[in-house]
Amino acid sequence: MRAAVLHEIGQDKLEVLDDVEAVGFGPGKVRIRIRATGLCHSDVSAMNGVLPQPAPFVPGHEGAGEILDVGDGVTHVKPGDRVLVCWLPACGACPSCKRGQTQLCLSGFMNAGTPNFKRPGGDVFGFAGTGTFAEEVVVDAGCAVPIPDDVPFDIAALIGCGVTTGLGAAINTADVAAGASVAVIGCGGVGISAIQGARLKGAAQIIAVDPVESRREAALRFGATEAVAPDALADAKQRVTAGEGFDYVFEVVGKSATARTAYETTRRGGTLCVVGAGALDDFFQVNMFELFFDEKKILPSMYGGGDVLTSYQRAIALWRAGRIDLESLITHRVQLADINEALDQMRTGAALRTCIEL
């Protein structure tokens, strides 16, 4: 079958090969025919080494498709069922799951160290234990979440990661208060979803911050009340909040520099919500006096900060009701053979989300 493979960490292009085989099928596993997958910035971060991932590997973790086969013991799906791929399935038995914090379950991360593809030259890993830049993938049954027939594969794929992450940051983690002032730094697919979440929660002002003009324009269409370049954020803070700072600031870039800017843009007693996934050696620093004196809440948000199955259902319900716009998040579409075009679209900021159709 065909799959896009990164041979070594640090390479900036993928090679689409037709000699890749999905492996590991057996009890508790499912085989999925991928129909659509989104390109998330985390895929690029894994390619360049910001996020740890063994190579060679097949990127992609935001996908949807059809069940081809199920292993022994799998009862919640059957061949022919339409599913989205959950890259962080909950085991239901660990301390995090028992506390209701299923987004912190580590069972999915354990899969990342086991190859789920192979080529004549050897084993190939799937990013985050999945690897949806492939025509087929074998994953734990918990990764296959059934979707209703009226949800297209491309929409389901987005719900599988970016939409759930951004909406959840605003709704679950930050729990934005009605009438609040909000700034969102980084307006790709996740940032736009955070904007939609803040709008749903009733934020009065939502300032979108991004260096790319087209993304700033898009943010206004999705609910931002104003959109500015990063060098204009200080002015927006002064105008909108009289210099006090925003009630909520979302950092959706994954870098300590923007996290520090976000912290300084948050009012005393306000909330900084860190959504971007960054590098192990990139340290965010605050001094002990400001930490105590300003009483700003620093809230990291992992995969939307809540139970992902509940978050999926919520996103579908909101989309059906017309309360969130998911179709317009997909600004570009490519075939798997043109995957490097999708990478260019992300790196330049031209795309909010590129859908790879298989």
Structural class of the secondary elements?
alpha/beta
The rough form would be described as globular
**Average pLDDT rating:** 96
Cα separation of the termini: 11 Å
Please state the CA-atom Rg, rounded to the nearest Å.
Answer: 20 Å
Helix content: 25-40%
Unreliable sequence segments = none
Largest β-sheet summary: 7 strands, mixed
Estimated share of beta-strand residues: 25-35%
Q: What is the count of DSSP helices, taking H or I runs of 4+ residues?
A: 12
Number of strands: 19
Provide tags for this entry.
358 residues, alpha/beta, 7-stranded mixed β-sheet, 6-stranded parallel β-sheet, 12 helices, 19 strands, 29% helix, 26% strand
Describe this structure in words.
The chain is globular. The chain is of the alpha/beta class and 358 residues long. 51% of the residues are buried.
Write a compact overview of the structure shown.
The chain is of the alpha/beta class and 358 residues long. The chain is built from twelve helices and 19 strands. The strands form four sheets. Strands 4, 6, 7, 10, 11, 18 and 19 form a seven-stranded mixed beta sheet that branches.
